[in-house]
Every structure is written in C-alpha cells, then in structure tokens.
Design goal:
7-stranded parallel β-sheet; Rossmann fold; 42% helix; 2 domains; alpha/beta
C-alpha cells in the first residue's frame, strides 16, 4: 500500500518535537505540505529546519501560537486558514496528585486540549466539507480510557477529546470528511515521562526501559516504549484515502498495554 498525500495541506499542532514532529515528518514523507506548530518562534523555527533536512524537498512552514490564548488561536487560523488534514496533538503533561491540581491548571489544560481542538476543528472542518474531502484527527491518548491518578486533569481532557471526535464524525456524516482519534501508549519522545520520572545517574536508556516494562508498565505486550514514528504511521494512514471508511473511531497504538479488545 502506497500512501500519497500530494496536493494535500496538513496542520499538526504541537509538532516541534516528539510524537507531533514524527507525525509531521510522516505526512511530509507522504507528500503533504505541512505546517509545524509550537508555542514560540524559538521552538518552531528549528523544528521547521529539522523537518526540511529529514524530508528532502518537503513543503514545510511554521506557525507559533499559545493554544491557551484564544487570540493566539485566531492568529493561527488567520495564518493557516485552509487545510485538508488537521491533527490536534498539542498539549502539556504533568504528574501532579489530584488534590494538588489548582483550578487554574484545570482551566488551562481544558483550554489547550479541548477548546483549542474545538475551535480549530470548527473552522477547518467547514472548509473540508465544502471541498468534499478532509481528515480531522485527535490525539486522545490511551489515558482517555485508562486513567492515571497523578495525571487526572490530563486524562479527563483526553477523554473529552474522545467525545469530541465521535460527535464531530456524526456531524460530518456523508460529507467525505472523517474524524477519528488515535490513542498512543507510553512513547519514547523528547518529553518522555520516563526521563523525568527516572533521573538516576549512570543508568542507560535500555536499563531504565527494562525496569519500567518489568514493573509499572508490565502490561505492555511489546515490552518497550513505542517509537514516535510508529504513532506517526497510524496518523498518516488515518489521513489517507485508504482510510476513507474509518470515521468516528478511536484507534489504539499502545503496544497492547490496555488489556481489553475494544
């Protein structure tokens, strides 16, 4: 199967590093023109140059916007008013006990994860419907169905994205535009929780990985961190013509860490 996204334009939020960058890279390799997004020009500029080096001849541009700021989202839409593929991926992660999460943090997470996704998809899906083709893809994360107690605000927002994805798909019925969620599991990225949670000196990545997947993540069937490009592969497929019959779905790329079939 050869995926060809030539002539398509994609916006990937939160794509200056890690999983988002891998998604942007995969879309560019498939021929799409890609807009890289991050919070600041300082992160976006180097990410654009990195992607151009990784994918020869790639059509890449960058836009900076803080998704917690409604006016910044308006500027992002003004800078990129029409896309065929929207990947809503941006958002922070924090390990904070439930009773220590302030209301302001709950509101900030909701603005970044949920309201930014609502605003961007409301705008871009309209244009997709008018053109008769489009893909909206949300990063709902495996925690949307498998809550982590110390990341409850993150998990609650991701669960909201599952509802948004399915509801949007219902509203797009028969239009040629699909909406889906992808649910990545523990992934080795530049911001991996592994490096923050295990700062012990002298331990190699392989040693830390083995400890994690023989301990707290022993439910994983692949017994390792997922590579960002493995997540990217799923998103590129969902953005393709080959996935035209997949909509309203939530697809896991979690290494089997969730032990139920659906």
């Amino acid at each position: 199967m050869k995926i060809d996204l030539a002539g398509k334009k994609a916006l990937v939020t939160g794509s200056t590093s890690g999983m988002g960058h891998a998604i942007a890279s995969g879309l560019a390799r498939a021929g799409a023109a890609v807009t890289v997004h991050g919070r600041s020009d300082e992160s976006v500029g180097p990410a654009v140059e990195r992607l151009k080096k990784e994918v020869a001849g790639a059509d890449v541009r960058g836009v900076a916007a803080d998704l917690a700021d409604r006016e910044a989202i308006d500027r992002l839409i003004a800078a990129e008013p029409s896309v065929d593929i929207l990947v809503s991926n941006a958002g922070p992660t924090e390990n904070v006990p439930f009773f220590e999460i302030e209301e302001e943090e709950w509101e900030r997470f909701f603005r970044i994860y949920v309201m930014a996704a609502v605003r961007l998809s409301r705008h871009h899906a309209r244009g997709m419907v008018e053109r008769g083709w489009g893909r909206v893809v949300f990063n709902a994360s495996v925690v949307s169905g498998y809550q982590l107690g110390e990341m409850v605000h993150w998990g609650a927002c991701k669960a909201a994205l599952l509802g948004l994805s399915r509801g949007l798909a219902e509203n797009l019925a028969g239009s040629g535009v699909t909406a889906n969620a992808f649910l990545p599991g523990p992934t080795h990225t530049e911001e991996s929780f592994m490096t923050r949670a295990h700062p012990e000196a002298g331990k190699s990545f392989a040693e830390i990985e083995e400890e994690i997947f023989s301990g707290p993540m022993k439910a994983s069937l692949i017994e390792r961190f997922i590579r960002p490009e493995e997540v990217g592969n799923l998103v590129v497929f969902l953005a393709s013509d080959q996935a035209s019959a997949i909509t309203g779905a939530a697809l896991r790329v979690d290494g089997g860490v969730i032990r139920y079939p659906l």
